[in-house]
From TrEMBL:
It comes from Cardamine amara subsp. amara. Residues 388-419 are annotated as: Disordered. Residues 391-419 have a biased composition (Acidic residues). This is Protein WHAT'S THIS FACTOR 9. Residues 36-370 form the PORR domain.
Length: 419
């Protein structure tokens, strides 16, 4: 837990006085960069698209009063699940999770229930949710604290449920347990929302600040001490696509960007010129923090767009992802646009995996086993083998940098909506 010290409060105040100095100054020299394809991070999107769909179906079957779903009831879910194949084909692809049987009254109607293996994995997931509940509550508080009114619509929050690692029925199992943290309200348009009951100073530290604070504790970083005294700025970790970092124009641009004062996403930005470079850096910090709060360090662009006004970020915020390829990666896989925090991954793997992501890796391994052995029959794969075998690494890489390539002529539409 982090508590604001007097020196830190002083440095924040000092930074706000410096805002006026940055107003009216010459804008940074910006370089238009081509989109760079990262095969390793694209593979993450490929695998986790099916994983998320399977998890959603698993939870839907659990919620069903009958304990199963019919093929007819999920026929229209393909777009909702983000799948490129019909839902029935998807369910049949993974027999280690979903057991197919005929309906009691309509023999030609396929039905699906969870296998014993899927139920066992689900029970492990519930244990993780219970043991890490405090962490989940803090993460949800931080999301609300970044909002202009400390409120977010339940529709937007529901979209982020998987990415934030929230329990399936979080409205009842989590929110209602903490009335001193959260409450339900209605927006002016009548939409239900979740609101933060009380601001919590102990949570008002960004991931970037916490990371530097940890380095100070271990004696690894003296720059953060200078930052707290208002003598320096915090810099974002950057990992440039091959060849970009050596370009003089890009290096000069990033040096200018890093020298701008760091504004915490939990600070009030009302005194900052909305057209200034400082406001752009603040928007980068907000997106960096929100992605840091997701357990997979990624989310869909459209999920961010639904909260754009509350986050106080530009309408055309997609340009920030392409403008700062050392911080973000924008993937176009699976007919959608996903933004990834690059520092969260190394060679296609999470640097600091959450216990829930480890369980989801196991879940995906069970899915793959079913896909591989489905033609030979489930009898060839025991439950012990499914749960104890280590997930195979489809995308093992040689030691070195991320595999990236510049795609000539590729330009991203900044204002287009995902399908």
């Amino acid at each position: 837990m982090f508590v604001k010290s007097q020196s830190f409060l002083y440095s924040v105040s000092k930074l706000f006085h410096q805002h006026q100095q940055w107003r009216g100054m010459g804008a940074m020299t910006k370089v238009r960069l081509k989109w760079v394809k990262n095969k390793n991070l694209d593979h993450v999107i490929d695998t986790e698209t099916d994983l998320k769909a399977a998890c959603i179906l698993k939870d839907a079957i659990k919620r069903s009063p009958t304990g199963f779903l019919t093929a007819k009831s999920v026929a229209d879910w393909q777009k909702l699940l983000g799948l490129t194949v019909p839902v029935l084909r998807f369910l049949r692809r993974y027999p280690t999770l979903f057991h197919e049987f005929p309906h009691a009254r309509y023999a030609s109607l396929p039905c699906f229930k969870l296998t014993d293996t899927a139920l066992m994995l689900d029970s492990q997931e519930q244990i993780i949710h219970q043991s890490h509940e405090a962490d989940t509550v803090e993460r949800l508080c931080r999301v609300l604290m970044m909002m202009r009114t400390q409120t977010v619509s339940l529709r937007s929050l529901h979209s982020l449920k998987f990415d934030l690692g929230l329990p399936d029925n979080y409205e009842k199992t989590l929110v209602m347990k903490y009335p001193d943290h959260f409450c339900f309200v209605k927006a002016s348009n009548g939409n239900p929302c979740l609101k933060l009951v009380q601001w919590r100073d102990e949570f008002a530290f960004s991931a970037l600040q916490k990371r530097n604070e940890s380095n100070v504790v271990t004696g690894e970083d003296c720059l953060y001490r200078e930052f707290k005294r208002g003598q320096s700025t915090l810099t974002f970790p950057m990992s440039f696509p091959r060849g970009y970092g050596a370009q003089k124009k890009v290096k000069a641009w990033m040096d200018e960007f890093q020298k701008l004062p760091y504004i915490s996403p939990y600070d009030d930005p009302s005194n900052i010129d909305p057209e200034s470079d400082l406001m752009e850096k603040r928007a980068v910090g907000v997106l960096h923090e929100l992605l840091s709060l997701t357990i997979h360090k990624k989310t869909k662009r459209n999920y961010l767009r639904s909260m754009r006004a509350e986050l106080n970020i530009p309408h055309k915020f997609t340009r920030l992802f392409t403008r700062y390829p050392g911080i973000f990666y924008l993937s176009l896989k699976c007919k959608t646009t996903t933004v990834i925090l690059k520092e969260g991954y190394r060679r296609g793997k999470l640097v600091d995996p959450h216990p829930l992501t480890r369980l989801r890796d196991k879940f995906y391994h069970v899915m793959r086993c079913g896909f591989v052995y489905r033609a030979r029959g489930l009898g060839m794969v025991s439950q012990e083998e499914l749960l104890l075998d280590k997930p195979e690494d489809d995308d093992h890489e040689e030691e070195g940098s991320e595999e990236e390539e510049i795609v000539e002529g590729s330009e991203l539409e900044e204002d287009s909506e995902d399908e």
